[in-house]
Each structure stands twice: as structure tokens, then as C-alpha cells.
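Summary for the funding panel

The consortium committed to producing paired sequence-structure records for every protein in the target list. Below we show the first two records in order, beginning with the earlier of the two.
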Amino acid sequence: MEFTQLLSSTRRGARLARLLAVEQLVEWGWARSGERTETAALVVAELAANAVGHARLSGRGFRLSLLLEPGRLRVEVTDARGERRPEVGGDLGEPGIGRGYGLVIVAALAARWGVRPHPPSGKTVWADIEAGRRHGRPPGSRIASRPAAAVAPGAARAPGLRPR
């Protein structure tokens, strides 16, 4: 099963991506407040926020795609800024603005994630969420305050969304 939607590269567009993803997953039979739906919503929110915050190009939107296959959900967010590669990091950006941990969260929740070029000049950041069993953090665990400790073992590591 597949769902694709083009959205504006705004904070409102990123929020709408998360809401649409949840509605689509519920339509596909996932529990609205279930762990895997909440995990997928968080992954969509982080990838969409990165597309809006780090890869916005005036007049260009981003595309959200959900691909449900046996055993996995693939979340894809495609933007127009292929030269800005995703980066797992702890750069908090401006003081008081909690930025820089979005891909740490994605890496901790997804079975794997990565980036691929999207011709002519864009990129697609994707994350696979296991759909056949419970996933996410074990009960009682916490995401560590250091980004490296929060990255799931074996998770793909890719260079950053921020310009170098």
C-alpha cells in the first residue's frame, strides 16, 4: 500500500504531514494510539521538520510518502535541496531552540534509515519502521543526553541537512 502527498515547506506543512500520516495508518488498520503509530508519527514529524527547517527552497514543497509492505513501513520525505545532506548531531543551533536531535530520534526509532538522491537536484530521506512486531525503546529506557548514545546499534549514519 502506498500514500503520497505534496506539502508546503512550512511549519504548518510539517505538522500536516504528521497528521496525514496518522490518518493514513489508521485507515490501513493501525491503532490510532498504538506504539507503532506513535513511532511512525514521530519519525514523520522529525523528517518533515528537517525538510522544512534545513532544506526549504522558496516556492518548492516537500513530498511525504508512506509505503506499507509486509513487516515494514517505509517513511520517505523528499525535498529540493540535494546538496544539504542529513546529519546526526547535537548542534543545538541558536540558544534556547532545541535543534539538532531530530535524526538521533529517527535513528533510535527506525530499524534503519538513509538518504538517496532525487533527480534532478533533490534528495529523499527514508526510514524503515518494523510493522510486524513491537519496536521503539524498551519500557523504562531513556534517550541519552549524548547523541551517540541514543543512536541504535547498526543504524545508518548519514552526513547532515545543514549546509557545511
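The next record, for a separate protein in the list, is shown here:
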Amino acid sequence: MSVRRAISMLYVLLLILGTSACSTTDALRVESPTASSMPAVTASGPTDGDVKEWEAPFAPSEVRSVLLKTDLSLVATDQNSESDIREYLTDCDKCLLALPSFEIAGEKFQNYSVSTAGDAYSFASFAIRDDHGKPSIALAVGGSDVYLSAGKEGSLVAQEALYQPDDPMCCPSGWSVRMFRYQDGHFIQADSFESSVEPTENQKVTP
């Protein structure tokens, strides 16, 4: 996981903790990342000798087959069209990343992202469930450097980088956070937030 990804995840955890008690439409500013408590949803990841268990029940090849049969226009953006996503899935084995899975209400959801091979820049992320022995998409999100992660109280969080025209790829101006609640076997979008990143002393521009 890159340093940029680790820092952005800390920002998202701070947002979730600061807004779990109530909802708001106001933009939030994050001054600096802080440590957070463990989420209610459990996440599991691979160990060096445990890759097969981590991918259970569905390997990337099985998930790729399902995604290629899916209407990917739902996760397409102006920057990444449906044809772009299909090209990555078809031509790049390393572009479908298996990430830590989620367990919600006793059900396991595998977490896969379609990303660039070089720097793991994700433009589509999927929660995959076991539907009578076959992989099925439970939640699909698209965006700029977008990832799904476990939230609080049985939720999933989609974190997306917000880039201004002059932002370098390493340093987005902020993050968008969308929360999805699991209800009656489906994920339903709940609160959404945006956070600006306060520049550090080294990043501030002096007149």
C-alpha cells in the first residue's frame, strides 16, 4: 500500500468517527490525521502463506469474468469510460486487485478494485458476495482513486480523491466519502461528505 493510500485512509477514518453521530451537508476540513478506533465491521487480509483462503470463495479470474458480463457504465466517469475499464480487465491481469474483505451481518463480501498496474490508482471498486456458489456484485462504485473499506455499524465506505485541475497525482485537494448502509440484503447510500486538506507549512504558497 502506498504512502498516499495510507494517509488518505487515515483521513477517511477521521471523517467517519467525527460524523457517525449525525449527518450534515456542510463540507468538513481535516487539519491532520489522527488514530481511530477499530470499526464494527471486521476486515481480513492475506498472509504470505494464506493467499488461497484470502481469495475464497472467488479468485480474481472468477470475479473478472462476472465484471466483464456486467454493465460497467454504472461505474464509468468522464475520466474513465466503460471501454477503458473493460480494456484494463481484459488486457491486464494485475489490474484487478483483491483487497481486504468485509463481514457484515454474518455475510462475507470480497473487495475488488480495477486499478492501474503501476501505482494502484483505482477507478472502480466492487463488493462481491456469494450468490448460491456464484460471484455476484453487491455494490459497485466508480471515481478517481476510489476504494471501498469497512465502516462503522455494518456500513461500507467509498473514499474518492478530489482533484483540482492543477493537482499532481500524489496530492489531491481533498476526499469525498460516501457511506453505504446494509439493509434487507442490499447496500443503500446514506451520508456523504467532502473534506478539504489543509496544506502543511511546506506546501503553503507565499506571495
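Regarding this second record: The longest helix spans residues 3-19. Strands lie at 28-30, 42-44, 96-104, 107-115, 122-131, 134-142, 147-150, 155-162, 174-183, 186-197.
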